[in-house]
């Protein structure tokens, strides 16, 4: 429970963090809320030599509106996003997802940038981003690029981020008043989803049904073709490849995906 | 007005809530200056031969003082199995030749600073030649954990050849079921630890979180080949134990050994990962039950066949099934009942005592059996209980298994719980939901239990405990107790008992425990023994102190002791009718120490009882269970402090419900533990539990002058089967008969589906 030896630098700015990343490459890791990284380090599943702390960078925190998008800074804490009036009005699904993460302590440390970069397929915010069709703003030495939610996640704990790149913000389309549904199936209140479903306006995202957050494409297509929520939901697990663990086998996960998708399409939250 | 029976706030809390407790890891003591830190290399494989250990890289690492293996500690004895079990199943202090479970200590790395330990651990190279894991309740003897033993069966309680073939003759309804009482982790908030130092006189002082310093001292002395007088154990604050901190573990012995070997103090504190694989686990029994009776609900015969998975070494696992057997027939009057228990060893963490220790297992099996019988006979489980519970008794009742129940009124307990729950209305609500085909179905589960508390050391020696009470010249009092609080609130309760006799306010009474030089004898805290034995001793010592003071005061006042009255409000004696002729207690204490040690010995164990009603909702589509209500009668005799008693009930009910619903230590088929962090080992939080509805019920015992029985474990004994029964009940109308614990949503869903397929194939 004691991490291997590492050095620590508090980044002075996003630019500084990117410089340090470029200099140290794979040996360095960005530290945001630390609520995924530090447990991995304590279990020695991660042994970075240098931590570049961006958690205190105000320039990366905050919720604002930019044209058609709601913009959430990378170091915005889950608790701040959940409480943001702006987020709750413009992208209530995103604010709700943030409110469902872990417990209050975790929500006061963990950040949206950290959650997306960590890319746990069972996590809340990645699924919400996919459901909302948002984009991730990424900065590196080569400049800034934006990556669509569907392209950002590559696999279990794997994203398109290059070693010298930083997530600086997340953009989601403003959807005030559009009905949505959110289903997080857990054993205990502060657990990760055994299966999660977020749905909004014909888009359906699934958590923990494969190595990344997934779109329930067959169900979406059925909806687009005029199927009822119940009929579309029957297709929710098609094309998914859920894993097996202590809580669920594949069959049960597929079953849950169908039930929860129906409930999410009926705009239920849980 | 008497202070007894009132809700005195816990006097220990201000310190815990402000400056905090001082646990072994926090200890600052000059005797421990310059301590080295002990780390354990633990086996990463379930079962293997050790073909070599190379510590050279570790020895070269920064801060490493020494590395020790089994060869170094060869002077220490091996630990024999408990109970009448196969004597070849010895536990070495460090794994010798073989490892038998993931987490078994193989070597010790001693470092200067704690942070150096985990780095150095990774550098100790151990060669393992893997052997097949030995797992399950029926491990084959193809692979032996102990070659010398010739079998993986450690032993038996009872003789299976004596089970009666005709036990169920004449029964119109007979049901059988194999039930798993799964392995759980005690997971106290404070994990294990130790600090040890040897004096120039060759005496060991060891600080160890424990449930009874005297027992821990005895264990250390035995395992270090020392005279008991050469060992002093001091107990810091203890952050929970649940049965798993009794005595001494081999890690404690090793820490003391290292301190002696290196001639400097040594410390150890366990990580959570180590705790979840290294501390003993609990339960781990398989029950094969058969129950039979008449169509109208008379239970006539019951058989319980227990298999105890003891883990790799037979610790408490050797005698837990004896307690399970003893409680086979529980609160019921069953004309023919029998049970046997087999103990097996497996390549898993050893099993130890865990809240209830053997009795919850008996209750869980029996309460499932009663429900299975009721379901088969088509009767209301409440009616079956009504019909078969022993009628109220005030003279001790001897069961067929030899238990002597002191007092009990089980039917009243059941009726009170049912009334408080609104049982009839709940059944109506359940019927309505079933009729409507609601997604969320209601389940109502009952469990009536009786359990054993305050057991003696063995036949002949009545259970006993000591207390010393001293009144000081400054008007304060000190109590020394042989019990050992670790969350229960003894400081408050023992002070209340002394205050009642002495008149000294609770705030001015200090409780001391857990230092074996100060308190050489004591049975500690476990088996729900403390109040009925240790508390009774405090009362007795306080009364004897007043009598001693009366003699002294009488001499001073030149009066007859019988003419003196003790005025508690003034803590002073005066001659009856003459308030001016007075001698205060403080004055007597100033003249000569006013101190009394008393030993209270009871006639035998007491048997608390009760009924729990659990109300759950099950989402029939997903299988997700939600615990909605827990209504419990836990009758442990007279209640000294309702606040403390309720606290014990709350903790127990929550812990028991958690076993029913979520908790389980899981191993894969190679014997690798999968539940090695709190992300995977799911103990529950307040969020998962409703507010409990505690019904008051107090049937005094005659076994001690306080009229009290134990309440520490009862909550977990009743709630586990009540919740499990409720969950099965919620989906019973879909054809489900039984679901093993933990009743996770997946298992419930699978059970619903299997029942559906079963009935489809029946109709086809
Ligand atoms: C007990 C517990 C329960 C939890 N429950 C949930 C839950 O229910 N649902 C859920 O979704 N999550 C849950 N989490 C995870 C939590 O949300 C984490 O906070 C989050 O996943 C990571 O955010 P962080 O800011 O803490 O990132 P960190 O731990 O600091 O970093 C995580 C990873 O992302 C990288 N990183 C961080 N920020 C950036 C950035 N801006 N650009 C590039 N890389 C970056 C780091 O280098 C690291 O690799 C839980 C965590 C714990 C400890």
What attributes characterize this protein structure?
heterodimer; A: 270 residues; alpha+beta; Uridine Diphospho-n-acetylenolpyruvylglucosamine Reductase, domain 2; Uridine Diphospho-n-acetylenolpyruvylglucosamine Reductase, domain 3; Enolase-like, domain 1; 3 domains; 14 strands; 24% strand; B: 764 residues; Aldehyde Oxidoreductase, domain 4; Aldehyde Oxidoreductase, domain 3; 4 domains; 7-stranded mixed sheet; globular; binds flavin-adenine dinucleotide
CATH class of the largest domain in chain A: Alpha Beta
Number of strands of chain B: 28
- Count of helices of chain B? 17
Largest sheet of chain B: 7 strands, mixed
What's the overall average pLDDT of chain A, rounded?
Answer: 96
Instruction: Just name the CATH architecture of the largest domain in chain B.
Output: 2-Layer Sandwich
Fraction of residues of chain A in helices?
A: 25-40%
Shape of chain B: globular
Distance between the termini of chain A: 34 Å
Strand content range of chain A: 15-25%
Name every ligand kind in the structure.
Answer: flavin-adenine dinucleotide
Describe the structure.
The complex is a heterodimer of chains A (270) and B (764). By secondary structure, chain A is of the alpha+beta class. Chain A has 3 domains: 7-53, Uridine Diphospho-n-acetylenolpyruvylglucosamine Reductase, domain 2 (2-Layer Sandwich), CATH 3.30.43.10; 58-173, 2-Layer Sandwich (Uridine Diphospho-n-acetylenolpyruvylglucosamine Reductase, domain 3), CATH 3.30.465.10; 180-266, Enolase-like, domain 1. Chain A is 34% helix and 24% strand. Chain A is built from 12 helices and 14 strands. In chain A, the strands form 4 sheets. Chain A has a 5-stranded antiparallel β-sheet. In chain A, strands 11-12-13-14 form a 4-stranded antiparallel β-sheet, with helices on both faces. In chain A, strands 1-3-2 form a 3-stranded parallel β-sheet, with helices on one face. The mean pLDDT of chain A is 96. Chain B is α+β, with helices and mostly antiparallel strands and 764 residues long. Chain B contains 17 helices and 28 strands. Chain B has a 7-stranded mixed β-sheet, with helices on both faces. In chain B, strands 7-15-14-13-8 form a 5-stranded mixed β-sheet. In chain B, strand 9 (193-198) and strand 10 form a beta hairpin. Chain B is globular and about 90 Å long. The termini of chain B are far apart. The A-B interface holds A 1-2, 4-5, 43-44, 185, 187-191, 194, 246-249, 252, 255-256, 259-260 and B 114-115, 117-119, 122, 271-273, 621-622, 624, 662, 666, 674-675, 677, 680, 682, 684-685, 687-688, 744-746, 749-750. The complex binds flavin-adenine dinucleotide. Residues 29-37, 39, 54, 74, 101-102, 106, 109-111, 113-115, 117-118, 123-125, 161, 166-167, 190, 192 of chain A line the site of flavin-adenine dinucleotide. Flavin-adenine dinucleotide is lined by residues 29-37, 39, 54, 74, 101-102, 106, 109-111, 113-115, 117-118, 123-125, 161, 166-167, 190, 192 of chain A.
């Amino acid at each position: 429970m004691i991490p291997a030896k590492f050095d620590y630098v508090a980044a002075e700015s996003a630019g500084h963090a990117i410089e340090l990343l470029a200099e140290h490459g794979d040996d360095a890791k960005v530290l945001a809320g630390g609520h995924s990284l530090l447990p991995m380090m304590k279990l020695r599943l991660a042994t970075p030599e240098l931590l570049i702390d961006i958690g205190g960078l105000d320039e990366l925190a905050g919720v604002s509106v930019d044209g058609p998008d709601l913009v959430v800074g990378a170091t915005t804490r889950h608790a701040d996003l959940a409480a943001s009036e702006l987020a709750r009005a413009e992208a209530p699904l995103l604010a709700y997802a943030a409110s469902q993460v872990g417990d209050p302590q975790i929500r006061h440390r963990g950040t949206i940038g950290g959650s997306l970069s960590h890319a746990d397929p069972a996590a809340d915010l990645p699924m919400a981003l996919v459901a909302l069709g948002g984009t991730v703003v990424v900065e590196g030495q080569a400049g800034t690029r934006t990556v669509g939610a569907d392209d950002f996640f590559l696999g279990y704990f794997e994203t398109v981020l290059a070693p010298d790149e930083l997530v600086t913000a997340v953009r989601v389309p403003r959807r005030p008043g559009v009905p949505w549904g959110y289903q997080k199936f857990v054993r205990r209140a502060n657990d990760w989803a055994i299966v999660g479903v977020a749905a909004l306006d014909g888009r359906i995202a699934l958590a923990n049904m494969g190595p990344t957050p997934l779109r329930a494409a067959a169900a979406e297509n059925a909806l687009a073709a005029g199927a009822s929520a119940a009929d579309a939901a029957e297709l929710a697990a098609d094309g998914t490849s859920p894993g097996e663990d202590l809580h669920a086998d594949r069959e049960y996960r597929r079953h849950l995906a169908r039930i929860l998708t129906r409930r999410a399409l009926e705009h239920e939250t849980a | 007005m008497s202070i007894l029976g009132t809700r005195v706030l816990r006097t220990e809390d201000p310190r815990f809530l402000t400056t905090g407790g001082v646990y072994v890891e926090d200890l600052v003591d000059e005797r421990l200056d310059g301590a080295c830190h002990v780390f354990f290399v633990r086996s990463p494989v379930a079962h293997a031969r050790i073909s070599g250990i190379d510590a050279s890289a570790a020895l070269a690492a920064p801060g490493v003082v020494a590395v020790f293996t089994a060869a170094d500690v060869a002077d220490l004895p091996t630990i024999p199995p408990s109970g009448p079990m196969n004597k070849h199943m010895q536990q070495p202090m460090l794994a010798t030749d073989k490892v038998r479970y993931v987490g078994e200590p193989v070597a010790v790395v001693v470092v200067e600073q704690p942070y150096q330990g985990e780095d150095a651990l990774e550098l100790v190279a151990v060669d393992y030649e893997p052997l097949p894991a030995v797992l399950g309740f029926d491990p084959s003897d193809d692979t032996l954990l102990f070659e010398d033993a010739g079998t993986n069966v450690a032993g038996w309680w009872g003789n299976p050849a004596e089970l009666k073939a005709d036990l169920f003759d004449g029964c119109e309804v007979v049901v059988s079921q194999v039930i798993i009482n799964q392995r759980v982790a005690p997971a106290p908030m404070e994990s294990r630890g130790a600090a040890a130092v040897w004096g120039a006189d060759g005496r060991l002082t060891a600080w160890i979180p424990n449930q009874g310093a005297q027992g821990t001292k005895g264990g250390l002395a035995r395992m270090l080949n020392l005279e008991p007088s050469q060992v002093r154990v001091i107990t810091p604050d203890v952050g929970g134990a649940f049965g798993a901190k009794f005595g001494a573990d081999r890690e404690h012995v090793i820490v003391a050994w290292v301190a002696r070997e290196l001639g400097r103090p040594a410390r150890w504190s366990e990580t959570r990962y180590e705790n979840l694989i290294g501390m003993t686990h609990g339960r781990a029994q398989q029950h094969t039950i058969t129950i039979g009776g008449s169509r109208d609900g008379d239970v006539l015969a019951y058989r319980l066949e227990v298999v105890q998975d003891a883990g790799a070494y037979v610790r408490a696992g050797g005698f837990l099934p004896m307690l399970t057997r003893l409680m086979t027939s529980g609160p019921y009057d069953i004309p023919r009942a029998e049970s046997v228990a087999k103990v097996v060893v497996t390549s898993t963490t050893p099993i130890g005592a865990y809240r209830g220790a053997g009795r919850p297992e008996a209750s869980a099996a029996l309460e499932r059996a009663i429900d299975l019988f009721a379901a088969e006979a088509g009767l209301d489980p409440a009616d079956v209980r009504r019909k078969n519970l022993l009628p109220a008794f005030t003279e001790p009742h001897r069961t067929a298994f030899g238990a002597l129940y002191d007092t009990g009124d089980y039917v009243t307990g059941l009726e009170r719980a049912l009334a408080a729950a609104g049982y009839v209305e709940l059944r109506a609500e359940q019927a309505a939901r079933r009729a409507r085909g609601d997604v969320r179905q209601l389940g109502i589960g009952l469990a009536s239990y009786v359990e054993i508390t305050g057991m003696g050391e063995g036949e002949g020696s009545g259970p006993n405990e000591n207390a010393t009470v001293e009144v000081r010249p400054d008007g304060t009092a000190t109590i020394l107790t042989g019990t050992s609080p670790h969350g229960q609130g003894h400081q408050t309760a023992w002070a209340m008992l002394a205050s009642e006799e002495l008149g000294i306010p609770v705030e001015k009474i200090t409780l001391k425990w857990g230092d074996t030089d100060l308190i050489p004898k004591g049975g500690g805290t476990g088996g729900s023994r403390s109040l009925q034995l240790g508390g009774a001793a405090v009362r007795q010592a306080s009364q004897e102190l007043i009598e001693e003071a009366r003699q002294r005061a009488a001499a001073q006042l030149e009066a007859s002791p019988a003419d003196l009255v003790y005025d508690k409000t003034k803590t002073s004696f005066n001659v009856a009718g003459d308030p001016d002729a007075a001698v205060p207690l403080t004055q007597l204490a100033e003249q000569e120490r006013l101190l009394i040690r008393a030993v209270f010995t009871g006639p035998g164990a007491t048997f608390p009882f009760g009924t729990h009603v659990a109300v759950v909702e099950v989402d029939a589509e997903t299988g997700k269970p939600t615990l909605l209500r827990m209504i419990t009668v836990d009758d442990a005799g007279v209640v000294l402090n309702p606040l403390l008693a309720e606290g014990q009930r709350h903790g127990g009910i929550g812990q028991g419900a958690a076993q029913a619903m979520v908790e389980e230590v899981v191993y894969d088929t190679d014997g690798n533990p999968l539940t090695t962090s709190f992300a995977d080992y799911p103990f529950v939080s307040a969020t998962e539990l409703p507010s409990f509805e505690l019904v008051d019920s107090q049937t005094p015992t005659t076994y001690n002058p306080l009229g009290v029985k134990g309440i520490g474990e009862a909550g977990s004994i009743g709630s586990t089967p009540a919740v499990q029964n409720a969950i099965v009940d919620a989906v019973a109308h879909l054809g489900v008969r039984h679901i093993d614990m933990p009743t996770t949503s997946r298992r419930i869903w699978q059970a619903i589906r299997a029942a559906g397929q079963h009935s489809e194939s029946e109709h086809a």
